[in-house]
Amino acid sequence: MSLQFDPLLARPSETLCLCPRMGETDDAPSTLQLALGFGLGVLAQALALSQLPQAALLIAPRADEIGWPLALMLIGAALASIPAALLVDGFGRRAAFALGASLGVGGGLLAAFGMTRGHFPALCLGALWIGLAQGFGLFYRHIAASARGGVSVLAGGALAALAAPLAVYCAELAGGGAATLLCASLLQIFALALAVRAPHGFARPRDDGAEKDRDWLTLRFALLTLAGAAAWAIMAAAMLRGPLSLALCGAAQSFIGGAMAWHLLAMYGPAALAARWPAFFPALKSLCAGLLLLAGAFALLRLSASPALLAAGMATIGAAWSLANIGALRLLHEGRRPPPAALALHDLCLLGAAAAGALAL
């Protein structure tokens, strides 16, 4: 194999770009690699979400601050959307995803410390770092969607959801809430190991001069972003309200954990079906059906006082959110690939709306 010098990759201190490992190419990672990285992030996120609302309920100084850890997690994901897009396109996937996973490792450790010590600021800061990692991890779907594999990568979240109940159960055996957050940190270490072994390649070919970045701001892009933002806002409000409502209704901790697991499976399960049978999930119809189901299921979640109906409402919201995301992602990447600035703004609006939905509860 002959190694060729690429002057476009020559940057100060970036010897890794100039001297790739033997046998390494600059090709895009496989869909399996992207799905595995996305799935590890989703599983770590699920473990954190299973503990943050209840930890805040126990140690928050005031009742109106209970939603802050979840909101800060979503704010962190929104803040990471712009640097994730810039780093992926400017420094390569390996650097961007490794940085995101590193933030997740630190965030899980800090949140576990805050929970064990009853230190609410540490819990909030850890949640923010976990959210930053999530913002980087969400960019896996854009990388895959540019190669027409975005829905398949979302399906990796369904496999993570299937593993979530077992992971939560093992963490509970190991010591409860803090152990669950430590397990989330361990998963981010696995994601870090996967990221540093990924191809270094850039998000899009550097010789692609056909597309001008000023052409992406259209009414179609704005409507897709608005629809996605509405879906994320409702989903985030449900993820905070659901577990707390179940706890107030006297549901057992095991029932709450099971309801969250089914909610997470519903969030990514339809993507697995859409990857296998795409003809049954037309993009525009999926988006519209998802938004309608979200509105109806959230009304059920607000009005119901039955644990069974609350759990059913959470699962329905998860499935509806998945349908909306399948449609929005396909429509967004239909035709030519949006530039990094567009993808960053899109994710910023989605995650910002999710943070607003959590704080508005």
Description:
It contains 14 helices and no strands. With 361 residues, the chain is mainly α. It has a single domain (29-204, 217-360), classed as MFS general substrate transporter like domains (Growth Hormone, Chain: A, Up-down Bundle), CATH 1.20.1250.20. Helix 2 packs antiparallel against helix 9 (177-196). It starts with 14 loop residues before the first helix and ends with a helix. The model is unreliable at 1-26 and 202-211 (pLDDT under 50).
Question: Mind telling me which CATH architecture this is?
Answer: Up-down Bundle
Mean pLDDT: 76
Could you name the CATH topology?
A: Growth Hormone, Chain: A
CATH superfamily: MFS general substrate transporter like domains
Total beta strands: 0
Structural class: mainly alpha
Number of helices: 14
What percent of residues adopt helix (DSSP H or I)? Answer: over 70%
Outline the fold blueprint.
Elements (H helix, E strand, L loop, with lengths): L14 H4 L12 H19 L2 H8 L8 H23 L2 H25 L2 H18 L1 H7 L4 H25 L2 H20 L22 H30 L4 H24 L6 H21 L3 H26 L7 H21 L1
Quick summary of this structure?
This protein is mostly helical.
Task: Identify the notable features of this structure and list them briefly.
361 residues, mainly alpha, Growth Hormone, Chain: A, 0% strand, globular, disordered N terminus
